[in-house]
Write a structure and sequence with these properties.
single chain; Rossmann fold; Methionyl-tRNA Fmet Formyltransferase, Chain A, domain 2; 2 domains; 14 strands; elongated
């Protein structure tokens, strides 16, 4: 069984390794050059391909006609897309003799579109997963081939969930590959009317509004916690990133005065933040934006933020 693989990130690495472990002949791997502006906390698909002796092609912004011609000439049985960051055009999808399949990071039809893990955490979901589906020109719209669910625990960050999802993608692919190797593609309808679609997120979307309820602010912190850009607020002319937080325990939350304004306060050596519904977050790790990765204690934070004692 022959395949061309479009892949990036940890899901791309694990799914490519899964194909090789099942004996799929991968003729070509197409991946992205790493961006110098992005925090590279994930493994490189190109390294796996090089170790396996598989030719590699690179795509940055667009898939050109020469690459489409190259793939078509290979006449693969399958095209696989594993966290590849570009839509595959119709002529490329048609190059697959049996099917073109994509691994998406949600339980479709929920959370179609971009950064599905971050959106799921932001919305307080308790479950997500990985879905292998038939690719169409419309994003994440084709029939469902395989799914694997994972839980989202109350204190999981998006990175925690992404690590689980990487394993879920590997399991979903591993389980369905025997059928795919026989040329049998199991299909279930992907009812888009029962799902949701979300676009990409920008670093500015991590700005905290302390007037929001505590659960909403906490979900935002979890959804964009490092290695993502992080939830942030400004005080005293400085920007601060909330790297880790928890909903404050009742005894700790009670230490903030009832008439305290929404926002961060230093109380008994703890950095506590009151929210619009009266809830309190315990800010466990705080960074100055100009010194990412360096935790601030309560005293220097209080000084930089110009908090009243």
């Amino acid at each position: 069984m022959k395949a061309v693989v479009f892949a990036y990130h940890n899901v791309g690495v694990r799914c490519l390794k899964t194909l090789l472990a099942r004996g799929v002949q991968v003729q070509l791997v197409v991946t992205h050059p790493d961006s110098p502006t992005e925090t590279l906390w994930f493994d490189r698909v190109a390294d796996v391909a090089a170790e396996a002796g598989i030719p590699v092609a690179w795509v940055d912004e667009a898939i050109d006609e020469a690459l489409i011609d190259r793939v078509a000439a290979l006449a693969p049985d399958y095209l696989f897309s594993f966290y590849f960051r570009r839509m595959l055009p119709a002529r490329l999808l048609a190059a697959a003799r049996i099917a073109a399949l994509n691994m998406h990071g949600s339980l479709l039809p929920k959370y179609r579109g971009r950064v599905p893990v971050n959106w799921a955490v932001l919305h307080g979901e308790t479950q997500t997963g990985a879905t292998l589906h038939v690719m169409e020109t419309k994003p994440d719209a084709g029939d469902i081939v395989a799914q694997q669910a994972v839980p989202i625990l109350p204190d999981d960050t998006a990175r925690d969930v992404f690590d689980k999802l990487t394993v879920a993608a590997e399991i979903a692919l591993w389980e369905v590959l025997p059928q795919l190797l026989r040329g049998d593609v199991p299909r279930q309808p992907n009812d888009l009317s029962a799902g949701s679609y979300f676009g990409g997120r920008k670093p500015e979307d991590g700005r905290i509004d302390w007037n929001q309820p505590a659960a909403s602010v906490y979900n935002l912190v979890r959804a964009v916690a490092p290695p993502y850009p992080g939830a942030f607020f400004e005080a005293g002319g400085h920007r601060f990133i909330v790297a880790r937080a928890r909903l404050a325990a009742p005894g700790l939350a009670a230490q903030i005065a009832n008439d305290a304004a929404p926002g961060p306060h230093v109380v008994g050596g703890h950095i506590l933040a009151k929210t619009g519904d009266g809830g309190v977050l315990h800010l466990l790790e705080l960074w100055a934006a100009d010194r990412p990765g360096v935790p601030l204690d309560s005293a220097p934070f209080s000084e930089l933020a110009r908090l009243q004692s």
